[in-house]
Amino acid sequence: MASNFLSGKKNLFFLVLYFSDMAMFLVSIFIAYRIFMPGIEDLFYPRFFLFGLLIILINYSAYGLYKDKRSLFDDNDFMGILYSALITYLVLIVFMLMFEQGDTSLLLVVSAALLFNIFLAAIARFLLYRVIYMFRKQGYDRRDVIIFGKNNHELREKIEENKSLGYRVVKSTNDLHALEKQLEDTDIVFLSRESLDDRLLELIIENSNIHWKIIPSVLNLVIEPVAFDEFRDYPILNISPSRTGQARLVIKRAMDLLISGIALLLLSPLFLVIAIVLKQDGPVFFKQERLGKNLKPFMLYKFRTMRPGSDGEKRKLKNEVKGLFKMKDDPRITGFGRILRRSCIDELPQLINVFRGEMSVVGPRPHLQIELKNFKGWRRARFNVKPGLTGMWQVNGRHELNFDKAVLYDIYYIKHMSFILDIAIILKTIPSIIMSRGRF
Question: Which domain holds residue 398?
Answer without folding.
Answer: 246-435
